Amino acid sequence: MDNVIMKKYHGLGNDYLILDPNKNQIKLNPRYIERLCRRNFGVGADGILYGPILEQGRIGLTIYNPDGTMASRSGNGVRIFARYLLEEGYVKEPEFSIQTVLGPVEIECLKDDPKQIRVNMGKPSYAGNEIPVAGGDGMEIINAPMRFHDSIYNTTCLSVGTPNCVIMLEEVTKRKAVELGPYVERAGYFPNRMNLQLLKVLDRENIQIEIYERGAGYTLASGTGACAAAAVARRMGLVENQVTVHMPGGSLFIELCPDGTIFMTGPVEYVGEIRVAEDFLA
Q1: Calpha distance 245→239 (Å, rounded)
Q2: Who contacts 11 (Cβ-Cβ below 8 Å, separation ≥6)?
Q3: For residue 238, what are the contacts with CB-CB under 8 A and spacing of at least 6?
Q4: Could you identify which of 34, 198, 201, 255 might form a hypothetical disulfide with 210, taking C-beta atoms 3.0 to 4.6 angstroms apart as the criterion?
Q5: Closest-CA residue to 228 (of 249, 248, 243)
Q6: How far apart are alpha carbons 241 and 253 in whole angstroms?
Q7: pTM value?
Q8: Is the pLDDT of residue 95 over 60?
């Protein structure tokens, strides 16, 4: 096997490795993914973006969590991949579509600042059977009591392509996210595991969140998590249609349209090219 060459980007500290199958001959497996993403012992990343997969005129992307599992969607990951496509010449126009496991995602690279990427994240679903939440058929879980780690929390669950549990608190901290996250991720309520956002409303145009992601753990930022938290705050009437979501890694601008569609805009930074030794993945 030849050396594996990847590029690394981050979106607000949420970092990804891009492994381009058109430039590498490697078949990914969970062990390879885990080794590459492992910090201190590997390259280190919050996940791997495998693509572009070029089929029938479409540009495909597969997203992997650092534990080797496949992710259904990543807001930061999609933004990062969009910038890669533009810089590598796979796309020529600032507006294009990326095919994911959940279907096409519409992208716009802003002309006045190509580092800023706007993504159509679709519409959230609060239906318990779509998230899914065990026993939630025909139900919406809105500000409902759930028990995690021997305490009761008022919880809102929704899907924005990934399942999310949003808990509103007066103060949100990394310590609380790290403490509560593992219990929420693997709670019996959630058969496919769960992402957690701890939410504090700052004012009608700003919210603050801390994040714990399934398959990844504590993260500095999450695009889907930011969209989920903003949608919940809007659903409860606590914010306006345009919200800035503040996270430890930085901020995302979220637009909540009257029809439910969510648009996310935020920056992407290029870190560099990574060349992995031939025998590292042997």
Answers
A1: 11
A2: 76, 77, 79, 80, 221, 223, 249, 266, 267, 268, 269
A3: 201, 204
A4: 198
A5: 243
A6: 11
A7: 0.93
A8: yes
